Amino acid sequence: MRQGGLPAQAAEILTDILIQRRDKLVAHWYARVTPIERPRATTSVVDSRVRLGVSFDDLGIQAGIWKASVTTYRWRFEDPSLGVSAEGEEQATPSRGRTSLRLDIGVSREQLRSPAADDELATLRITSLRPGAEAPVSTIFLRRTGSDPGYRVVGLTH
Predict the structure, then answer these.
(1) Confidence class of residue 62 from pLDDT cuts 50, 70 and 90?
(2) CA dist 84 to 32, 51, 66, 95, Å?
(3) Helix (H) or strand (E) holding 85
(4) Are 61 and 67 in contact (CB under 8 A)?
(5) Three-state secondary structure along 18-36?
(6) Rounded CA gap, 139 and 137, in Å?
(7) What is the C-alpha to C-alpha distance for residues 35 and 98, in angstroms, rounded to an integer?
(8) pTM here?
């Protein structure tokens, strides 16, 4: 702004307009996807049932467009090689800038120990639900880890 020789007050007004425009553009496009990035998976066992922990960056929450307190995620897990599927809704739980979900996926520890073929992937489909908006699904692709019962993230699509 200084390079353009604008008076300080005009530069401040122009800067505010550009910031508002940027925020509107980001909100517009983030509302058209479930803006999750950098997913990670962990597993824990509770009473011989596996819980899938998924953490990710929700770019809409990080950018301040939405609040975690009003964000819910609808999810559907499927592992065709085990013949299992589960679904539910979870409230956003932010921790250190990341969102975490703990999902009861209906799989036992013994099932996860069975070998999976290289081309067999499980999927976790996530839709963000926010006031006045339901975004399209993002899909996280998971591969069973075999000897260490659990899953690891191998892909993400929006």
Answers:
(1) confident
(2) 29, 13, 33, 29
(3) strand 84-91
(4) yes
(5) HHHHHHHHHHHHHCCCCCE
(6) 6
(7) 12
(8) 0.81
Q: Which two structure tokens, joined as six digits, stand for 148?
A: 């260490």
3-class SS of residue 158: coil
Q: What is the pLDDT of residues 13-40, one digit of tens each?
A: 888 888 788 777 776 776 667 788 999 9
Residues 6+ apart with CB under 8 A from 106: 49, 77, 84, 85, 86
Mean local confidence (pLDDT), 44-70: 85
Domains of the chain (ranges; CATH) run 31-157 (2.60.40.10)
| Contacting residues for 26 by C-beta, under 8 A, at least 6 apart | 63, 65
Cβ count near 77 (within 10 Å): 24
Residue with tokens 């390079």: 3
Q: Do 153 and 141 touch, CB atoms closer than 8 A? A: yes
Please provide residue 109's backbone torsions phi and psi, each rounded to the nearest 5 degrees: -60, -40
